[in-house]
Structures are given as structure tokens and as C-alpha cells.
Design a protein that fits this description.
Layout: H1 10-31, H2 35-41, H3 46-74, H4 76-95, H5 100-128, H6 134-163, H7 170-186, H8 225-242, H9 244-274, H10 279-295, H11 297-307, H12 310-330, H13 336-353, H14 357-365, H15 372-399, H16 402-427
Helix pairs in contact: 1-6, 1-7, 2-3, 2-5, 3-4, 3-5, 3-8, 3-15, 4-5, 4-7, 5-14, 5-15, 6-10, 6-11, 6-14, 9-10, 9-12, 9-13, 9-15, 9-16, 10-13, 12-13, 12-16, 14-15, 15-16
């Protein structure tokens, strides 16, 4: 290892990077299941309630790319603090909304602010974490998300039960956003020693000493604030144009990863209904599968750091593809309920092995000195796949059947594995593949 590596303070980075992320994830996990219920309580029909619930993901998707420019201009910590503030504004709109249309506006604002917060956190970890522990750190960050989404709904259930008001759950996320902002204001940046808001200056944040990226060689090194301003002037479309090859090729693989992951969250509950499971049993099975997924986040990082990114990405994609195929095949069997339980756990094993793969690949590929605009475009590819997957599943199910929809997702998984196998070696150095 390089001689500078011991100077890296992992605990400081964990405290300033993971704690705000955990708080934000808990808050978001608390409101996601509440949004359609709140819309229904305000008089929305079933279809419109579903539309309102989808706006948090739509907001994230729309906010992904421009968030890279925002983070590049004001800095990672400033962006996270600002995003927490905008999220509070959106959540207050949700809390006091008199009708579902106003609620929709508030949910959309929360989605956009979530995109900025997530991108800023990703860029911060990209520059602060040395490459030899990058995958473990980013996989652990993925584990933080899973933890928040797991814990948040239980907190929301308790608050709603105590208050008797569905919209009181939004106060959980408001509290979490404010606490995250306080943490970011109080804790020192481990790279600079600064607290709170500070004027962005690219030279003030040294990257981790042994960070190398695949695209860094194409970017001229810079050590001055003036160069940072000049780079910022290149803008969003310059970034996309410069890196269009990797975004189109490897980015399509990222989109397929996102699609298969989001697809399982849609198809498993639908399949449980199709095989006759009651709600409580279905929730228990999916909850156990989620626990298996969560348990593997650090293992995924160890695999990537030790054996390369493909050692995690390919088992993830192939495992998910095979699970979708088995799901489609098992629908006519007398033992289909037992198959469903086994396949749900198998899907979680495959997904858990790939925990953090999208963030890690994005960090590997991002330009060393100015990662945020690229990471915004990269995150868009994965989020686009996540947004498209439920539409594909519902559309194919409506036209054909849920078994056919599962088979289509399996085919997409095989295509995604092929894309990753073809292009990861092309764009990553040998030691990271």
C-alpha cells in the first residue's frame, strides 16, 4: 500500500458520511409507505394515489443529472445541507397539504432534494475514500440505505398509531433531515478540518492519496480554484458529451442492474398474490428476504475489493436472472408456494452480493478532480432502469401474464450480465475489474 494510506481516518469519514446518510434513509423509509395512504386520505383515487407515490422516484430521476452541477458548484457538504433544507420544505408542504395535488408537489420536491443529497454523498465518498477500501465503504453505504428503509416503516407505524394522523409520519423525515443538517454543520470535514457551510474550492479537498479512476487520465490535473471554476463552466452537457461512450455502454449495464433490482420489489408481492399467499405471510417472506439482502452488504464490498468489480456484478446479475426464470417456470407447480419462498431468498442473496456495485463503478469511472457532474449522469442511468422496470412488468403482465413478465426480466438480466462482462474490462484498470 502507499505510504500515505495510514493517514486516512476511516472513522472520521464514517461519521461525516454515513451518519447523515443513515438519518436521511430512515426518514425516507418512514414516508415511502405512507405517501399513497396520505393521498387516499385526501380524496385521491387508487390510480392517482399510485401516481403521487411514484413522484418521489420521478423527482429523483429528474434531479439526478442537474444535481451534479449543483454539487460541483457549491460543494458536497453544502449541497447535502441545502438538500436537507429543501426536503424539509417539501415535507412541510406534504404535512399541510389540503388536497392530493398539493401533496404531489411536496412529494416531488422531496424526490428532487433526495437526488441532490444522494449525489453529494456519493461524490463526497468518492473523493474521501482510498481506492483499496472504496468498495467496502460504498457497499456499507448501500447497507445504510437498506437499514434506513427497513427501520423507517416501523417508526412510521408507531408514530401514526400514537397520533392517529397519517400525515404525522412526515414529521419523522423532517426531524431526520434537520438532524442530518446539524451533523454536517457540527462535524469537521476530515479532509479540510472545516465545519458547516464553506466556499467551494476544489483545491481545498484533496482526494484520497491512492485514488485512481479510469477516466481520470483524460482529465488534466488541477490544483487551483480558478481551474475549478473553468471546469464548472464546461457544464452538464460538456460532461455528458465527454463521457458519452462509457455512459452509453457501461451505463446501459447500470440501467439493467437498476431494473432487475427494482423489478423484484414489484414482482415478488404480485407473485405472492398470484400463488394465493395471505398478506401477513407474504410480508413475512419478503421481510425475511430483505434481511438476507441487508446481511450481505459488507461481504459484497470485500468481494469487490479483493477480486474485482465483476466478481460481484456478474453473480448479482446472473443470480437475479436465474431467479426470474425460476419464478416464471414455477407458476404451474403444486409446490409453487415453496418455490416462491426459496426464490425470494435467492433473489435477495443475488442482490446482496451486488450491494454497492453501482456506486462503486460510478466512483471508479468518475474523473478524479471533478466527479460530481459525471456521477449525476451515471446515477441517472441506474435510476432510469429502476423507474422503467415497474412499467415493463405491469405492461407485460397486462398484455400477457406475470410469468411472461418474469421471463422478460430474466432475459434483461442475461443481457445486462453480457454488457458488464464486455465493457467493465474496457473501462476499468485491470486491478479493479
Amino acid at each position: 500500500m502507499p505510504a500515505e494510506t495510514p493517514a486516512f481516518d476511516l472513522r472520521a469519514v464514517v461519521l461525516s458520511g454515513f451518519l447523515p446518510a443513515a438519518l436521511f434513509a430512515i426518514g425516507e423509509g418512514a414516508i415511502i409507505p405512507i405517501i399513497p395512504i396520505a393521498a387516499d386520505s385526501l380524496g385521491a383515487g387508487l390510480a392517482f394515489a399510485g401516481f403521487v407515490a411514484s413522484l418521489i422516484l420521478v423527482g429523483e430521476l429528474i434531479g439526478d443529472v442537474p444535481s451534479g452541477v449543483v454539487v460541483g458548484r457549491i460543494g458536497e457538504r453544502n449541497a447535502m445541507i441545502g438538500a436537507a433544507g429543501v426536503s424539509v420544505l417539501g415535507l412541510l408542504v406534504c404535512t399541510w397539504s389540503p388536497n392530493p395535488w398539493v401533496l404531489a408537489v411536496g412529494v416531488f420536491l422531496v424526490g428532487v432534494s433526495t437526488a441532490v443529497f444522494a449525489l453529494a454523498r456519493h461524490a463526497y465518498m468518492t473523493t474521501a475514500i482510498p481506492v483499496h477500501v472504496r468498495a467496502r465503504a460504498l457497499s456499507s453505504l448501500g447497507g445504510v440505505f437498506r437499514f434506513g428503509y427497513f427501520v423507517g416503516p416501523f417508526i412510521a407505524a408507531g408514530v401514526v398509531h400514537l397520533t392517529g394522523a397519517t400525515q404525522s409520519a412526515f414529521w419523522i423525515h423532517i426531524t431526520c433531515c434537520l438532524l442530518a443538517a446539524v451533523v454536517l454543520l457540527v462535524i469537521r470535514d476530515p479532509a479540510t478540518g472545516a465545519r458547516g457551510f464553506r466556499k467551494p474550492h476544489r483545491a481545498s479537498r484533496p482526494t484520497a492519496p491512492d485514488v485512481t479512476t479510469a477516466t481520470a487520465a483524460t482529465e488534466p490535473p488541477t490544483d487551483t480554484g480558478a481551474q475549478f471554476v473553468q471546469d464548472e463552466a464546461h457544464g452538464l452537457f460538456r460532461t455528458i458529451r465527454t463521457h458519452r461512450s462509457v455512459l452509453l455502454r457501461l451505463g446501459s449495464g447500470a440501467g439493467l442492474i437498476g431494473a432487475l433490482r427494482a423489478g423484484r420489489q414489484v414482482i415478488l408481492p404480485l407473485w405472492a398474490v398470484s400463488v394465493g399467499l395471505d398478506d401477513a405471510t407474504a410480508a413475512l417472506v419478503i421481510g425475511i428476504a430483505g434481511a438476507v439482502d441487508f446481511a450481505l452488504f459488507y461481504t459484497s464490498g470485500q468481494i469487490m475489493d479483493r477480486w474485482g468489480r465483476l466478481a460481484s456484478a456478474l453473480p448479482c446479475m446472473l443470480g437475479l436472472a436465474v431467479s426470474y426464470f425460476l419464478l416464471a417456470w414455477s407458476g404451474h407447480l403444486d409446490t409453487r408456494v415453496g418455490w416462491f419462498v426459496g426464490i425470494a431468498i435467492g433473489m435477495s442473496l443475488a442482490n446482496g452480493v451486488g450491494s454497492g456495485i453501482l456506486m462503486t463503478l460510478g466512483a471508479d469511472l468518475a474523473p478524479r478532480d471533478h466527479p460530481a457532474p459525471f456521477l449525476g449522469a451515471w446515477r441517472f442511468t441506474g435510476d432510469f432502469g429502476q423507474a422503467a422496470a415497474p412499467l415493463v412488468i405491469s405492461g407485460v403482465t397486462a398484455v400477457a401474464s406475470i410469468a411472461v413478465a418474469s421471463g422478460v426480466m430474466g432475459v434483461l438480466g442475461l443481457v445486462g450480465a453480457g454488457v458488464l462482462l464486455r465493457y467493465v474490462p474496457r473501462y476499468l484498470p485491470r486491478r479493479l475489474r
